[in-house]
Amino acid sequence: MFDPSTLAAPIVGAPMAGGPSTPELTAAISAAGGFGMLAGAYLTADGLRAEIAAVRALTDAPFGVNLFVPEEIPFDAEAFAGYRTRLLRLAERFGATLPEHVEYSDDAFDAKVAVLLESGVAAVSFTFGAPAPEIYTAFADHGIGTVTTVTSRADAERAVAAGTAALCAQGIEAGGHRSTFGILDSDTEIGVRELVADVSALGVPVIGSGGVGDVDDVRAILDAGAVAAQVGTLFLRTGEAGTKPAHRDALSDPRFTETATTRAYSGRLARGLVNDFIRDFSATAPPVYPQVNTLTGPLRRAAAEDPQMINLWAGTGWRGAREVSAAEVVAQLTPGT
Ligand SMILES: Cc1cc2nc3c(=O)[nH]c(=O)nc-3n(C[C@H](O)[C@H](O)[C@H](O)COP(=O)(O)O)c2cc1C
After folding, report:
1. Which tens digit of pLDDT belongs to each residue from 294-334?
2. Could you tell me the distance, in angstroms and rounded to a whole number, from the CA of residue 175 to the centre of ligand 1?
């Protein structure tokens, strides 16, 4: 059974949905002694099966898969329509058609759970919530480890009560989506070290995540009580990652000087480099997920080469991201090597 305390290198490669996560990146991190996590979000069940097979073709080393846990809340049609109207001028500029109606989607969660139960992967991690206790039990019965990503002590307690085998404590420094359990929840904004120390008391192994820019940051996370650090942003410029060129370039572009959390792209809070889109739309973006994510999709695709428009997910340690191999990142981040 997956035990994050026993990794040769205490580095978990963050799942990064929407492009950056690739079988090559997952395999390279695991082969280098860390633990690669494939992003399962936004894929179909068949697509996920194919990506798992692609990792297997590259390495025998164990790896994991991450899923977004769905939460269906009443759809705020007025807020959605209002936000759509505010985006129309921009959409016109880029020749994008924004959908008027977006159906709720649970991202094929049950179908993907079924694929994973039979997949033989070493671990599954959950983001945006803790699934039902039966799901944790089913994975345990199949010898598959479980990790639940949390941003607060309260969510960590819920995950442990539901049966998670390990926690990923995601600090406010982290790039990408915040794994708050409730879409409407306000952000606790707790730093990774404080959160690791707090949830370590709950009796399951803790992986600390957020803002790693160098090996000292990894050491600080381990010193706070974590058994490993989950790192995303520092892998974004590696050759194995599927990061879009405009995103890749922005990470080393001195015009980008800070990161912030925003609901502007998806309706859920996520941290990225501050660009024009974040500046213009963060204040009015409604907490309507996943519909806002689908709404902005055509715009993000039409403006894929414009770093002022697309989501440039990045954690606070983004300046440490280098154009090196994933194995080099694992080696550089491993204390004592
Ligand atoms: C581009 C990008 C995409 C991400 N996608 C996911 C995801 O699909 N699932 C998930 O659990 N976390 C995702 N995250 C968050 C990571 O799991 C992790 O918390 C974060 O990368 C850690 O902070 P760092 O980027 O500063 O290292 C993503 C992060 C980034 C930067």
Report:
1. 999 999 999 999 999 999 999 999 999 999 999 999 999 99
2. 5
Whether residues 89 and 26 share a domain: the answer is no
Q: Residue 81 belongs to what H/E stretch?
A: helix 77-93
Domain that holds residue 89: 74-104+257-311
Are residues 265 and 295 both part of a single domain? yes
Ligand 1, atom nearest to 210 Cα: 23
Secondary structure (DSSP) of 130-194 = ---HHHHHHHHHTT-EEEEEESSHHHHHHHHHHT-SEEEEE-TT-SEE---SSTTPPP----HHH
pLDDT for residue 162: 98
DSSP label of 323: S
Determine the distance separating the centroid of ligand 1 and the alpha carbon of 315, expressed in angstroms: 8
| CA angle centred on 213, ends 209 and 219, rounded to 5° | 65
